[in-house]
Amino acid sequence: MDKMNNTAGSFALLGATVPRDSGIAAKLRAAGVIILGKSNLSQWANFRSDNSSNGWSAYGGQVYGAYYPGQDPSGSSSGSGVSSSIGLALAALGTETDGSILSPSEVNNLVGIKPTVGLTSRALVIPISQRQDTVGPMARTVKDAAYVLQAIAGKDPNDNYTSAIPYDPLPDYVAACNFSGLMGKRIGIPRNIIYPEPGDGPVLAAFTAAIQTIKNAGATIIDNTNITAYALNQYLNGNASSIVLDADFISDLPGEYLSKLTSNPENVHSVADVRNFTQHFQQEDYPDRDTAVWDQSIALGFNNTSPQFWAAYQINLVTAGQQGILGVLANNSLDALIIPTDFSPGLPAFVGTPVVTVPLGFYPSNTTIIKSQPRMDLVATGPNIP
Q1: How many Å apart are CA 194 and CA 316, to the nearest integer?
Q2: Distance set, CA 141 to CA 114, 183, 187, 241 (Å)
Q3: What is the pTM of this model?
Q4: Cα first-last separation, the chain
Q5: What is the CA radius of gyration of the chain?
Q6: Which band of pLDDT confidence, cut at 50, 70 and 90, is reported for residue 384?
Q7: Positive or negative torsion for Cα 117, 316, 225, 329
Q8: What is the C-alpha separation between 276 and 54, in angstroms, rounded?
Q9: Tens-place pLDDT, residues 303-315
Q10: Long-range CB contacts for residues 199-203, cutoff 8 Å, separation at least 24
């Protein structure tokens, strides 16, 4: 077991120690992988502030993308995206709750695989939500990502979600990387969850070209395989998803991580403890970077054992399940759905289904710069950014 700190970018966990390698690290070592180090992230996996920056953490500082000065690296697996994109490693790992592998892979020109929740172990990974958290590879080619997924997937007695894996042995993910794999497949496009924003024109043009590439590979495209009006309304306007994350975090941070530490120098045992530390430790940059996400989680007043939590979780399952993407797949006899990566994380997050993102091109060299909200300190869109 290495001696590097595992901090989520926070001084609250500096010097804290775990009893063993995480399940993922153990599998990498067993596969003969050389682990070079840990990368910076958006602090607490972007689950602290409403007004922070992608790629910033108190302990690690600010990560920038490599394609434009001051580029927003996205997040929360920001350093993983940049380090892999510039070749510091064959690949990197990211964790995803809702977009944290997919988004930084997109803007750093990478292949990112968000595995099905439970395909890869989360044991001793700092959590947000046991129902949504997953660990996956970020690499420069599909095959490189598949090699890493092959190494990290599989059962772990310390993560009971992995006991539901139906395969023994696992599928050969590397062997599946071939152009003929799309021959005869039925691919749907749920157009009503694609809602373009200013500057998205080049992305949509590249997506249209990619559809033709998929057709050329032998797939049948079924357009407008849309989710229901109920699902769309819940997805865009409902609050069930935030209730699930808030309540899971209140339970899972202490239950799945803090309580398992073998040393805990700052004596943090709950979300409230972590918030208190953050608000009183100067280098955590509070109140300039707030704790609004934690404030909301604590104010919720219940955790994931509450009937109120269960009701919200059922709404998630219906929204993304029978009335959402699972229903679309089943009702149209589809093998997969395709949409631009920007619009892909949310519904799969609700039900734990997998997503793969691949590079789609770059913004034109004359693209007008758009800064990232709310701090306006990073370049979200600009010339030659993926």
Answers
A1: 19
A2: 15, 21, 22, 32
A3: 0.98
A4: 36
A5: 20
A6: very high
A7: positive
A8: 23
A9: 999 999 999 999 9
A10: 199/363, 199/367, 199/368, 199/370, 199/381, 200/340, 200/342, 202/361, 202/363, 202/364, 202/367, 203/340, 203/342, 203/360
